[in-house]
Structure formats: C-alpha cells, structure tokens
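re: ur question from yesterday

yeah so i grabbed the chain u mentioned. its 504 aa long if i counted rite. heres the sequnce exactly as i have it in my notes:
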Amino acid sequence: MEPSKSPRFLTLIMLFGAVVFGMVLAGSLNLTVPSQGLTSSETANAAENSVGAPGPSSAAGLPSFADLAEAVLPGVVSIHTAKIEKADVHGNVPEELFDRFFRQRPKGEEEPQEFRTDSGGSGFFISADGWLITNYHVIEGATAVTLRLNNREYDAEIKGSDPSTDLALLKVAGENFDYLALGDSESLRVGDWVMAVGSPLAFDSSVSVGVVSGKGRSLGLSQATNSFENFIQTDAAINRGNSGGPLVNLAGEVIGISTAMSYGAENIGFAVPVDTLRSVLPQLRESGRVRRGFLGVNVNNIDYKTMRGFGLDSTDGALVTAVTDDTPAAKAGLEPGDVILNVDQHRVKATRDLIDYVSAQSPGKTVELDVIREGKHLSKKVVLEERPAEQETAEEQPKESKEKELEWLGIQYGDLSSEARERLQLPGNLGGVAVLNVAPSSPLYDEGVRPGDVISQVNGARIDSARTFERIVGAARSGDFLRLYVHSVGRQGLFSRFAIVEVP
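ran it thru and got these structure tokens back, copy pasting raw so excuse formatting
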C-alpha cells in the first residue's frame, strides 16, 4: 500500500496553477502596467513621440501644464467695475435720520437716488506699456474700471470698444508689464490643447485646461453680435469672471478671448477668435470704435436642397434672402434669390466669407459682386456705407446749466440739531455737520463715510455750521487733498477717524 501524497505538496501544486492562470488572464485582458515593461530608452522614445505634450510627464504619464501657467499668469489681470445709475426717486432721505440730525431739509434732497453695481471679469496685457484686452460686456456702462495684479490695483481707462465682437481695449499707466503674444486662431484644429486663464467667480489667477471642441460656433447672444459670431468652443472650464481672459495654446500665445458659457451643460465654453481681435485692434487704438462696410442684405448658407432648388453647381456662395430698402445693396439692384459667388475676386464659399470681407472694408469703398440670378451671371458694383449698428455711439450726458456747490463730494449734509448732539454724546466744543446721504459715486463712500456720521473738521479747521463747511471745502482747488475728521456712533460708542479725498 502506497503512502498518500502530502497535503503540503498538493497545496503547492494548486498555488502554481493559479499563478500561471492569472498571468495568462492578465495578458489577454491587457492589464499589465505598460511602464513596468519599458526600458529607460523606450520611455524616452515614447515621450519624444507623444503629440502635443505640453510639458514633462508626471509619474502617471499625464502631461503637466505648470510651466505654461507660470509663463502666462503674470500677463493676466482681474478686472473690477463699478456702475453708477440714477433712479428718479424722491424722498430718499430716511425720515428717522432727518428727525435726528436736521433742523431743515437738506440740500439736494430732490435729486435722483444713485445706485451702484459692482461686477468683474478678466483681461490680459498685449503690450508692455499697459494696453490690455477684455470683453465689451465686462466694462459696458462702467463708471470706473480697476485692475488687480500682483496684489496691486491700477485705474484703467476705456480706450475703445466694439459691441459687435464683444471686445474692449483698455489702458493703464505704467511700463514693463508682462504681456501675452497674439497667436493664430485660423490654424487651430479641433482637439488641440488650450488653457483658459482668468478670475472665475473672483478666484484670481485660475487656470483650466481642455481642448478645442469646435470652431465657427454661432450662439445668437445679441442682435449686435449676430452677424459676427464665430466662436471657438472649448471644454476648458469657463465660468463667470473668466470673461475677457485669454485662451492660450501650448506656446502661451493668445488664440481666443473667453466670452461665454453654456448654462445647460458642463464645460462648454466659447471664446472670440484672436484673429477677430487682430482685425479690429487698429481701429480701436486709433479711434476707439470700429467702422464697418455695410451691404444691407440678409444671407444664408447654401445646403444641398437649396443648391438643387436654385439649379446651382455647388453649395458655394451666399444666398440673398432679403434686401433692406435704401441700402447699398438695394441701390445696386440686388434682389432676394441672388447668389453671391465672389466679392472683389475673393471666393465666397459661405456667408462668413462675405460678411468678413465686407465688414473689413471702409465705408465709401466700392466692391464688385459676382452674382448668379436665375442661372445668369451678373456683376454688381456696390458703394458700401457704414453699418448702422456701428453709428450708434454713446451720447454725452447733458451737463446741468449750473453746477451745484460741492456736487463732486456726493453727500447730503446739514446743521446738527441740539437733540442730535446729545444723542451722539458729542463734547460741548465739538460742532460739525451731519451726513444724511452718501452717493455710491462719492469719494467719501470709499472712505467709509455713511449716513449718520458727523464731520467736525476739514484740514484742521473746525466746522460749526453747514455754511462753514461749504466755505472751506468750496475754497479747495483741483488737486488739493481734504482731510475730514469724521465721527460715527456704533455699539462701542463714538468712533472717530480721518477721511481723505482729493479734489477733482
């Protein structure tokens, strides 16, 4: 009788079989980690052959965009805007403040109430001497524009804007700013890496990375932009506050200006192509606005069905669907149903070709159109006019016939009543005027002065009445600084401090 096999021997046989089976299964499922099977030279070759790798690979084999972000961020700014609007509201003085502080109705009580709206966006420098770009909708209607860069703020001046392309040109005083080079958006391909840089939701110096998801997108954002929308679509995250910031390629060149996002989806954002910026930048610098040539037609692209219906040879061209009366197109005899094939010998393959070419011409220029009408070729010469939407410029606000005294200070004030002095527990020798209202545009607003405060001194001179206050402040010259001694009543009692403003 043979002895039975050892249990330990059987266990080893089973373990060996399991290992062999596992190796075969892992190989068939491609579960082996590739980097474990590469030599150092093979790894180097793989990195060298990777297309579009923006930087050194991490341990997991993913690209790093740190060098790109480090190069681009110094040229990108956060933009803050303040918009002051007036509403025709009377009786804006709180009655309780009137009863507490005044013996007579304050001056300027019947003036419309001012309201202040603060918002923000992003922008980027295009030159070392302080020229920068943002979206028009970021600065639209702004009373003041401030840039934030490296924990420092700069006042910016709006030098030009173009609502049709949603672009604006700003200027700040200074030299040697880091700036970004403008790239080429025409050569972009769907799938190219891009980085969006800006201040989404007020988070300064934020970057997001994605690819070009599409080109030539039209969103119908507004009537002004309809004809010129040619957006780059990207999945790099674009959120509120990114507007006006750069979309850059792997070389750190600006290829788009972040403008819009889709609320109904995740990571579907849109940017104005940098080539559009290039086309309007000279006019923005020179005159602050863009003048465009204008035909006066509505045009559509030609699809296969339209091609067959009009008896055309191809889908090239722009189909005229409407001609506006008393426009260059109407005067030249264009009609609905005409197909424009060429403009000044430039082939029109789609409506974009016609719109871009005509818009780039100066009003008054004559262009020649090659047109097909009912199968016949016609030549039409059209004298362009200025696009009507571009003629609408902001009108200057009419100035009042007589400027009110101390209007620039932006406050309502009056003599202190004896009851108010007692309530504030002011020392017997401390006089002043009571502040009833502070407009958001007032320089004292930024100094923290609010209704209910008392101003007792101006540049060391004591104030005993509203008339004295007016005399001292009214005597200040442009460029002088006023030092106002201000008192407030809070939970901790009377709080005093200085508010300093410059006379405009």
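noticed a couple things. The chain has a mean pLDDT of 81. also The two ends are 118 Å apart (CA to CA).
anyway ttyl
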